[in-house]
């Protein structure tokens, strides 16, 4: 009964309520499926705004995973608890024999629908205490970290954890948010959005609203207001613009792959978080962007979106162009040997520069760069992926290019000859832009956004030094 009338609930919620009823102690519960009228958009928006307070103040968050489980699943849950008790120093991993013994249970457990819901990221990150209930078994988030994530990740089945590892990562990122600068928090929020890209939600707007509680912890209470009367396009645009103007960071632009967009009318600079494109490799590149500082510290407080949000909103930034794309190679979405041979023919210049580009300047020792170059030239019998998986992860679904000044680089799939290369204040990396068909003599610096890039020789603020100082000017993205 709710408000004196019957209220339909799911079978799983019914099972959870029966479990609560059978416990010896009385409990005061807040259950989203009952306490929020999902059919009332205004009430739904108000409750979403309160999520951080609800989960922060709850004495305990109970997660009901289900009543029935197979023998394999039950044995695996018991093994998690046992491993957690013995793994106090976070160093013990599963043996090959243990992995084989519990393989069916591991596959079944990681495939549970619960782990792939968008909303659980903030629910578990904000909670003070979390207990998972599965049949007669009970375990905590700490048990999961010690008995599953830490212990299983190094094994052959560790790949199964990729899609649910963000659950623990979200808690870590949120704990760091209290001491981070706004620029740092923008990067951490961007990382959470990468993590949630493969999670599931019925409403594409919840890709953003599902993390609203975390956002307000990182910034402030009025950072973003949930509004289910806005279209998905407006929600995504409003959020991206606010994050840029609040933080002064362009980290959010690195998520844009607009050739895969499904939201009609979305500005080219706004990521489409509803896209089902696999962004795991873009997420892989994210931590390596942190060491770059292509725009230096210039004009730190001058980022703002254009006033108002129209059907085609524009973003106003400061920056400068430093050249164009002269030639492009194949996209790395086919046979590696064919792709890398094509790229090397396109750029016969410095072997060190080419090798640095292939690994985003991750390896600094000359010996490492020599090894990478030998592999890419095809002089080694060792497969590229086996010897240096980093090369594949850094270049997958990327297109190699050479600038008109002869600099090698990597850009999005959609990079074309004639595209402009830009340094934008607030961005750690250079960006690829394309002249807008709407540009005029009075507004020549109007561009569409292609994506983030790597250009060897400009990643550490080199273009801001020396006698040829570039002048920052207004650049508009649409």
UniProtKB/TrEMBL annotation:
What is an example of a Pfam family matching this protein? Het-6_barrel
**InterPro entries linked to this entry:** HET, HetReg/Transcr_Mod
What superkingdom heads the lineage?
Eukaryota
Q: Where is the Heterokaryon incompatibility domain?
A: 5-123
Q: What is this protein called?
A: Heterokaryon incompatibility domain-containing protein
Q: Which organism is it from?
A: Cladophialophora psammophila CBS 110553
Classification lineage = Eukaryota, Fungi, Dikarya, Ascomycota, Pezizomycotina
